[in-house]
Amino acid sequence: MAEKKIRKVLIANRGEIAVRVIRTCREMGIATVAVYSDADRPALHVRMADEALRLGPAPSRESYLVQEKVVEAAKRSGADAIHPGYGFLSENAAFAQRCADAGIVFVGPPPAAMDAMGEKTRARDRMRAANVPVVPGSPGPIDDEAEAARVAGEIGFPVMLKAAAGGGGKGMRRVDRAEDFASAWRGARGEAKNAFGDDRVYLEKYLDEPRHVEVQLFADREGRTIHLGERECSVQRRHQKVIEETPSPILDPELRLRMGEVAVRAAQAVGYVGAGTVEFLVDSKRRFYFLEMNTRLQVEHPVTEWVNGVDLVRWQLEIAAGAPLPWSQGDVRPRGHAIEARVYAEDPSRNFMPSPGRIEQLRVPSGPFVRDDGGVYAGYTVPIHYDPMISKLSVWAEDRPRAIERLQRALGEYVVRGITTNVRYLRRILAHPEFQSGQYDTNFLARRADDLKVVPDPKLEELALLAAAAFAYRKDEARANEAAGQRTPDQPAWRLAGRRAAMARGSWQR
Ligand code: MV4
User: Fold this and answer.
1) Are 328 and 223 in a shared domain?
2) How far is Cα 249 from Cα 245, in angstroms, rounded to an integer?
3) Is 126 domain-assigned?
4) What is the residue with the minimal CA distance to atom 12 of ligand 1?
């Protein structure tokens, strides 16, 4: 394909990934266009881009997810390309096609490749045909209950029921015994119908204590495909990744080579182009199975950039413009160890309740081999409308113990006042012996929840109680005055309430 010069990119995303893409574009001399919802007018990505266009009201379904608005903004701004980031429209084949139809380069794979990997059971079929190991199970969704029970018996209990339209752990159900199968089957179909509007369910052999290990891939338009090593992503909370690292503590060189080769084969089977990630489940006997392929750049891509010394967004843009892969497989020689921690505006001491609000003070970590990919600033108000991840903190070191030490040191420098974050929770995870051993599995955070519990900051807790008492006293006093027909003092109760709420949020920390 002829090279098409990309002079201006519209970033169809927000938050830290939009800032991340803008930074690389700037280094490449590419002009940038940000798009924003009303809630994001003050956002960092809007401030950093060369131009910014409003999409619509705050809800994503009225802004970032509205394909025609995004394409229209690209046309109006004269953008040659659209970078979708992750989430939103990044894995929407119809959107990728709409960009192509408008003569705008979509920075990602062809719609057909995205489609091939979009639906779980179709992807499994394609992978089986390409001799990629998939978890033993039913050939596809099964409609008939008796047939499903028969197949379950063949596979052998325990089995996992999965919604064909599901993903990310939604619509999954473990069944341990034949006598439990019928009710589990009906339950899973009902849940799938409610959650996805599609009640198709398929079966897999249940893997005990699986690990989630994914392989970063890159392919150019001529079909050259390489892998850039793996990422261990088993530290998850409710199917949401929290800590990611490379290399995986459980892979040996032989297994790493085999998984890389299989991942490349998976990408080539669907004519993949650009950055992609093949996710595998690795069981307790170190057998690995294709889980799904993510046809986008992942949140956790920085750890792969650290150990390879590459900028994957630059690769995406060069390949989208028709350039060949910058590296061959022989050039990939990852070195050292990198770990990433996702920083969320949420309160672990209150069951991870989101903690939106104004950031009164922000001091991000720095120093040798520390990278903060952030989308916020002091004075910015974290909106309630979107994913609460405000930044990712990643580090590199010569080996895993030193990478853990460095990430702990960096997290210890993280100061965020005005909202509550999960930073203290992240530090407890990194300090836990099971994490330090590297022998954790996907159940680690659930199994060790008590060890990892974060109590509200003792000083903060006391202040919050004092404020609550003062507030309650003032309310009683006001009520008594009212009853006696006297005016209440001019200090409005709302100010106390606001202080109480702010204390509860953590802005009263030291
Ligand atoms: C499984 C499994 C055990 N056996 N499939 C798939 C979606 C992913 N987010 C969770 N998935 C799992 N699929 C079989 N046949 C266990 C999980 C699982 C998991 C896998 C990787 C990382 C974290 C996980 C947390 C819970 C369950």
Assistant:
1) yes
2) 9
3) no
4) 169
- Show the beta-strand stretches assigned E in 157-295: 159-167, 170-175, 201-205, 211-219, 225-237, 240-246, 274-282, 288-294
Find out whether the beta carbon of 335 lies less than 6 Å from any atom of ligand 1: no
CATH of the domain at 166: 3.30.1490.20
In this structure, which residue's CA is closest to atom 11 in ligand 1?
169
Domain that holds residue 425: 211-452
User: Are 325 and 473 within one domain?
Assistant: no
Do residues 447 and 470 share a domain?
A: no
Q: How many domains does the chain have?
A: 4
Q: What is the 3-class SS of 440-503, one letter each residue?
A: CCCCHHHHCHHHHCCCCCHHHHHHHHHHHHHHHHHHHHHHHHHHCCCCCCCCCHHHHHHHHHHH
Please give the Cα distance from 275 to 393 (Å, whole number). Answer: 21
Q: Is the CB of 239 under 6 A from ligand 1?
A: yes
Closest approach atom of ligand 1 to CA 167:
7
Are 154 and 203 in contact by the 8 Å Cβ rule? The answer is no
Is the CB–ligand 1 distance for residue 244 below 6 Å?
no
Say which CATH number the domain at 100 has.
3.40.50.20
Whole-number Å distance between alpha carbons of 257 and 79: 40
Residue 446 and residue 382 share a domain: yes
Answer yes or no: do 35 and 150 share one domain: no
Q: Are residues 166 and 309 in the same domain?
A: no
Q: What is the CATH number of the domain that holds 437?
A: 3.30.470.20
- Write the residue with the smallest CA distance to atom 13 of ligand 1: 169
Residue-wise pLDDT tens for the chain (510 aa)?
567 799 999 999 999 999 999 999 999 999 999 999 999 999 999 999 999 999 999 999 999 999 999 999 999 999 999 999 999 999 999 999 999 999 999 999 999 999 999 888 889 999 999 999 999 999 889 999 999 999 999 999 999 999 988 777 777 899 999 999 999 999 999 999 998 889 999 999 999 889 999 999 999 999 999 999 999 999 999 989 999 999 999 999 999 999 999 999 999 999 999 999 999 999 999 999 999 999 999 999 999 999 999 999 999 999 999 999 999 999 999 999 999 999 999 999 999 999 999 999 999 999 999 999 999 999 999 999 999 999 999 999 999 999 999 999 999 999 999 999 999 999 999 999 999 999 998 889 999 999 999 987 766 656 656 766 776 777 777 777 777 766 544 445 555 555 555 555 544 333
Residue 130: inside a domain: no
For residue 434, which amino acid is it?
E
Last residue of a domain, one of 177, 205, 233: 205
244, 386: one domain: yes
